[in-house]
From TrEMBL:
UniProt key word Zinc: no
Domain named 6-phosphogluconate dehydrogenase NADP-binding: residues: 2-156
InterPro entries: 3-OH-isobutyrate_DH-rel_CS, 6-PGluconate_DH-like_C_sf, 6PGD_dom2, 6PGDH_NADP-bd, HIBADH-like_NADP-bd, HIBADH-related, HIBADH-related_NP60_sf, NAD(P)-bd_dom_sf
Sequence ranges assigned to domain 3-hydroxyisobutyrate dehydrogenase-like NAD-binding in this UniProt record: 168-283
Residue ranges crossing the lipid bilayer per the database entry: none
Keywords (A to Z) from UniProt: NAD, Oxidoreductase
Organism: Actinoplanes couchii
Protein name: Dehydrogenase
Length: 292
């Protein structure tokens, strides 16, 4: 089976590379052509346009930044979209609003295609090592799609019909964003009271709250290393999706609303491309203002 892969960004490029290295026959395309060169070196075919991807593959993975980009790249609402997806399986692995995904699924079905929702839990590091967790949703279990996904992940969790996988992704991200933001506040609190960040890390790592996330982000906070794994901009985007879905469902989400404001402040202060741990800078700014 030849697999198409559209979107070779921070997450998409290492995911596609894992497919290529596993021997998947792959045809790829990206809006910025240079991002496709490592895939070419790994043996993938680099398409000149999106239509070439659909002509060459029965299953096409889409890993794009947001719903506007998905619509633009797939030419949704045009005859081109219907022609491309007819007879194809479209696997949407990016993060968008659940309602948007449900609408996209309906459009794909009307055009004669098959739709699978497969967002992931994990950042660039797990994407590089093939340790993502994939949440998959669709009208039926699809063993072929699940086999295709295996080189990119260590776990596949079935989440029922669309948009169950994206709702699950937002639930997972609620916990992730709250956890990392609380960790940043802990380091900020400790620093403002003159405590050694290395000692704080030692206590956290030895205790019951230790996790892969706390160790990774704790290291970033300790070293002031904000090289990106998951950016402030992307986390704010995800956080806004959570708040929007909560409001749409009449669900209280006070912690998510507070986190959203902090990440928005970090973005406004120029930290949009830094790792999400850089939200500590928004806390530092608030403290600085309160002590003037």
């Amino acid at each position: 089976m030849t697999v198409g892969f559209i979107g070779l960004g921070v997450m998409g490029q290492p995911m596609a590379l894992n497919l290529a290295r596993a021997g998947t026959q792959l045809i790829v395309w990206n809006r910025t052509p240079d991002r496709a060169e490592p895939l070419r070196a790994a043996g993938a075919t680099v398409a000149t346009d999106v239509e070439e991807v659909f002509r060459g593959a029965d299953t096409v993975v889409v890993m794009l930044a947001n719903d506007r980009v998905v619509d633009a790249v797939l030419r949704r609402g045009t005859g081109d979209f219907a022609r491309m997806v007819r007879g194809r399986t479209l696997v949407h692995m990016g993060t968008t609003a659940p309602d948007y995904s449900a609408g996209l699924a309906a459009d794909v079905a009307r055009a004669g295609g098959t739709y699978r929702e497969a967002p992931v839990s994990g950042s660039r590091g797990p994407a590089e090592t093939g340790d993502l967790v994939v949440m998959i949703a669709g009208d039926a279990v699809d063993p072929g799609v699940e086999r295709m996904l295996r080189p990119m992940c260590r776990e596949i969790v079935r989440c029922g019909p669309v948009p169950g996988a994206l709702l699950m992704k937002l639930a997972v991200n609620t916990f992730l964003i709250g956890t990392v933001t609380a960790l940043c506040e802990a380091f900020h609190f400790a620093g403002e009271h003159g405590l050694d960040p290395g000692t704080l890390s030692a206590v956290l790592d030895a205790g019951p709250m230790a996790s892969t996330v706390s160790r990774a982000k704790g290291g970033k906070l300790r070293e002031r290393d904000f090289s990106v794994q998951a950016s402030i901009r992307d986390v704010l985007y995800n956080n806004q999706l959570i708040v929007d879905a909560a409001h749409a469902g009449g669900v209280a989400a006070p912690l998510s609303e507070v986190c959203r404001e902090l990440y928005a402040e970090a973005l406004r202060d120029g930290h949009g491309t830094a790792d999400m741990a850089a939200v500590v800078r928004a806390l530092e700014t608030r403290t600085s203002r309160s002590t003037r």
